Amino acid sequence: MIVAMIIYALSAYAVSIITGKSTYFRKVLIGRPLILFHNGKLYRDNFKKARIDISDFLTHCRNQGYFDLTNLRTAVFEYNGSLSLLPVDSDRPLKPSDLEIEPEQEEIMVNVILDGHINDVNLKKSGFERVWLDKQLHEQGFDNAKEIFLGMADTVKKTLQLYPMEVKKQSADPFE
User: Fold this and answer.
1) 139 and 85 part of one domain
2) Is 59 exposed, middle or buried (0-12, 13-18, 19+ CB in 10 A)?
3) Cα 27 to chain center, whole Å?
Protein backbone atom coordinates (compact mmCIF):
# COMPACT_ATOMS: atom_id res chain seq x y z
CA MET A 1 0.00 0.00 0.00
CA ILE A 2 2.83 2.38 0.81
CA VAL A 3 4.51 1.55 -2.51
CA ALA A 4 1.27 2.46 -4.35
CA MET A 5 1.09 5.78 -2.48
CA ILE A 6 4.72 6.57 -3.34
CA ILE A 7 4.16 5.71 -7.01
CA TYR A 8 1.03 7.87 -7.09
CA ALA A 9 2.83 10.80 -5.46
CA LEU A 10 5.79 10.55 -7.83
CA SER A 11 3.54 10.31 -10.88
CA ALA A 12 1.48 13.32 -9.74
CA TYR A 13 4.68 15.28 -9.21
CA ALA A 14 6.01 14.24 -12.64
CA VAL A 15 2.76 15.28 -14.32
CA SER A 16 2.88 18.70 -12.64
CA ILE A 17 6.50 19.20 -13.78
CA ILE A 18 5.76 18.08 -17.35
CA THR A 19 2.61 20.17 -17.72
CA GLY A 20 4.39 23.19 -16.30
CA LYS A 21 7.13 22.99 -18.92
CA SER A 22 5.30 21.81 -22.05
CA THR A 23 2.13 23.27 -23.52
CA TYR A 24 1.69 20.17 -25.71
CA PHE A 25 1.67 17.80 -22.71
CA ARG A 26 -0.54 20.25 -20.79
CA LYS A 27 -3.15 19.98 -23.56
CA VAL A 28 -2.83 16.18 -23.69
CA LEU A 29 -2.84 15.48 -19.95
CA ILE A 30 -5.05 18.22 -18.54
CA GLY A 31 -7.14 19.27 -21.52
CA ARG A 32 -7.85 22.50 -23.31
CA PRO A 33 -10.74 24.94 -23.47
CA LEU A 34 -13.47 24.13 -25.98
CA ILE A 35 -15.75 26.63 -27.70
CA LEU A 36 -19.29 25.34 -27.28
CA PHE A 37 -21.16 28.35 -28.65
CA HIS A 38 -20.08 31.23 -30.89
CA ASN A 39 -22.10 33.77 -32.90
CA GLY A 40 -25.37 31.86 -32.55
CA LYS A 41 -23.94 28.43 -33.38
CA LEU A 42 -23.68 25.42 -31.06
CA TYR A 43 -20.72 23.12 -31.74
CA ARG A 44 -22.02 19.60 -31.14
CA ASP A 45 -18.61 17.91 -31.55
CA ASN A 46 -17.16 20.09 -28.80
CA PHE A 47 -20.13 19.22 -26.57
CA LYS A 48 -19.21 15.55 -27.03
CA LYS A 49 -15.52 16.20 -26.34
CA ALA A 50 -16.40 18.14 -23.19
CA ARG A 51 -18.85 15.41 -22.13
CA ILE A 52 -21.55 17.98 -21.46
CA ASP A 53 -25.11 17.85 -22.73
CA ILE A 54 -27.25 20.78 -23.77
CA SER A 55 -29.20 20.76 -20.48
CA ASP A 56 -26.00 21.13 -18.45
CA PHE A 57 -24.85 23.88 -20.78
CA LEU A 58 -28.12 25.78 -20.35
CA THR A 59 -27.89 25.32 -16.57
CA HIS A 60 -24.39 26.83 -16.55
CA CYS A 61 -25.67 29.76 -18.64
CA ARG A 62 -28.63 30.38 -16.32
CA ASN A 63 -26.34 30.18 -13.27
CA GLN A 64 -24.42 33.10 -14.72
CA GLY A 65 -27.56 35.09 -15.54
CA TYR A 66 -28.03 34.28 -19.21
CA PHE A 67 -31.47 32.82 -19.86
CA ASP A 68 -31.43 33.83 -23.55
CA LEU A 69 -28.58 32.62 -25.78
CA THR A 70 -29.00 35.60 -28.08
CA ASN A 71 -27.38 37.66 -25.30
CA LEU A 72 -24.18 35.60 -25.66
CA ARG A 73 -21.44 35.91 -28.23
CA THR A 74 -19.22 33.03 -27.05
CA ALA A 75 -19.32 30.24 -24.47
CA VAL A 76 -16.09 28.42 -23.64
CA PHE A 77 -15.98 25.21 -21.61
CA GLU A 78 -12.77 25.37 -19.56
CA TYR A 79 -10.69 22.30 -18.80
CA ASN A 80 -11.52 22.63 -15.08
CA GLY A 81 -15.26 22.18 -15.79
CA SER A 82 -16.36 25.81 -15.57
CA LEU A 83 -18.07 27.75 -18.32
CA SER A 84 -16.78 31.17 -19.40
CA LEU A 85 -19.33 33.40 -21.11
CA LEU A 86 -18.76 36.45 -23.28
CA PRO A 87 -21.92 38.56 -23.72
CA VAL A 88 -22.64 40.49 -26.89
CA ASP A 89 -21.48 44.08 -26.49
CA SER A 90 -24.96 45.55 -26.64
CA ASP A 91 -26.16 43.25 -23.82
CA ARG A 92 -23.16 43.28 -21.55
CA PRO A 93 -23.76 44.66 -18.08
CA LEU A 94 -23.22 48.38 -17.80
CA LYS A 95 -20.35 49.26 -15.50
CA PRO A 96 -20.17 52.42 -13.40
CA SER A 97 -16.94 53.33 -15.18
CA ASP A 98 -18.91 53.45 -18.47
CA LEU A 99 -20.87 56.35 -16.97
CA GLU A 100 -17.87 57.79 -15.14
CA ILE A 101 -19.48 57.47 -11.71
CA GLU A 102 -18.23 56.08 -8.41
CA PRO A 103 -20.93 53.99 -6.68
CA GLU A 104 -21.22 53.53 -2.92
CA GLN A 105 -19.56 50.31 -1.75
CA GLU A 106 -22.04 47.71 -0.52
CA GLU A 107 -21.39 45.56 2.53
CA ILE A 108 -22.21 41.92 3.21
CA MET A 109 -25.77 41.27 4.34
CA VAL A 110 -25.98 39.65 7.79
CA ASN A 111 -28.28 36.66 8.37
CA VAL A 112 -30.34 37.53 11.44
CA ILE A 113 -33.19 35.04 10.95
CA LEU A 114 -32.65 31.52 9.67
CA ASP A 115 -35.51 29.06 9.36
CA GLY A 116 -37.68 30.95 11.84
CA HIS A 117 -34.97 31.37 14.48
CA ILE A 118 -33.34 34.67 15.41
CA ASN A 119 -29.54 34.67 15.48
CA ASP A 120 -28.90 36.99 18.43
CA VAL A 121 -25.12 36.96 17.93
CA ASN A 122 -25.38 38.20 14.32
CA LEU A 123 -28.06 40.68 15.31
CA LYS A 124 -25.80 42.28 17.95
CA LYS A 125 -22.67 42.14 15.75
CA SER A 126 -24.53 43.97 13.02
CA GLY A 127 -25.45 46.75 15.47
CA PHE A 128 -29.16 45.98 15.80
CA GLU A 129 -31.36 44.97 18.72
CA ARG A 130 -34.48 42.83 19.10
CA VAL A 131 -36.64 45.95 19.36
CA TRP A 132 -35.48 47.08 15.91
CA LEU A 133 -36.02 43.58 14.50
CA ASP A 134 -39.55 43.32 15.93
CA LYS A 135 -40.39 46.77 14.53
CA GLN A 136 -39.11 45.76 11.07
CA LEU A 137 -41.10 42.51 11.18
CA HIS A 138 -44.34 44.34 12.05
CA GLU A 139 -43.76 47.05 9.43
CA GLN A 140 -43.43 44.34 6.78
CA GLY A 141 -46.58 42.56 7.92
CA PHE A 142 -45.26 39.69 10.06
CA ASP A 143 -46.13 38.83 13.64
CA ASN A 144 -42.89 37.08 14.61
CA ALA A 145 -39.68 35.50 13.32
CA LYS A 146 -41.24 32.02 13.09
CA GLU A 147 -42.97 33.18 9.89
CA ILE A 148 -39.61 33.99 8.24
CA PHE A 149 -37.45 31.51 6.33
CA LEU A 150 -34.56 33.97 5.86
CA GLY A 151 -34.04 37.48 7.23
CA MET A 152 -30.99 39.49 6.17
CA ALA A 153 -29.96 42.85 7.62
CA ASP A 154 -28.14 45.52 5.66
CA THR A 155 -25.85 47.29 8.13
CA VAL A 156 -25.22 50.28 5.83
CA LYS A 157 -28.80 51.05 4.75
CA LYS A 158 -30.26 49.87 8.09
CA THR A 159 -32.86 47.71 6.32
CA LEU A 160 -34.14 44.15 6.67
CA GLN A 161 -34.94 41.83 3.78
CA LEU A 162 -37.43 39.12 4.68
CA TYR A 163 -38.26 35.90 2.85
CA PRO A 164 -41.35 34.19 4.32
CA MET A 165 -41.83 30.49 5.05
CA GLU A 166 -44.82 30.04 2.78
CA VAL A 167 -44.07 28.24 -0.45
CA LYS A 168 -46.44 28.48 -3.37
CA LYS A 169 -46.31 25.72 -5.96
CA GLN A 170 -45.35 26.68 -9.48
CA SER A 171 -48.05 26.18 -12.06
CA ALA A 172 -45.61 25.07 -14.78
CA ASP A 173 -42.00 23.92 -14.94
CA PRO A 174 -40.15 26.16 -17.43
CA PHE A 175 -37.12 23.86 -17.54
CA GLU A 176 -38.75 20.67 -18.81
Assistant:
1) no
2) middle
3) 27
**Rounded Cα distance, 6 and 125, in Å:** 49
Point out the domain boundary residue: 25, 54, 89.
89
Q: Are residues 80 and 144 in the same domain?
A: no
- Give the pLDDT band of residue 176 (cuts 50, 70, 90): low
Q: List CB contacts of 158: < 8 A, sequence separation 6 or more.
A: none
Total tally of structural domains belonging to the chain: 2
Q: What is the pLDDT of residues 114-156, one digit of tens each?
A: 989 999 999 998 899 999 999 999 999 999 999 999 999 988 8
| Neighbour-count burial for 95-111, b at 16+ CB within 10 Å, e otherwise | eeeeeeeeeeeeeebbe
The CATH number assigned to the domain holding 120 equals: 3.30.240.20
Largest CA distance in the chain: 67
What is the value of pTM for the model shown? Answer: 0.50
Residues 20-34 pLDDT 10s: 787 777 767 667 889
Domain that holds residue 61: 16-89
Whether 114 is in a domain gets the answer: yes
Cα torsion angle, 116, 122, 124, 128, sign: negative
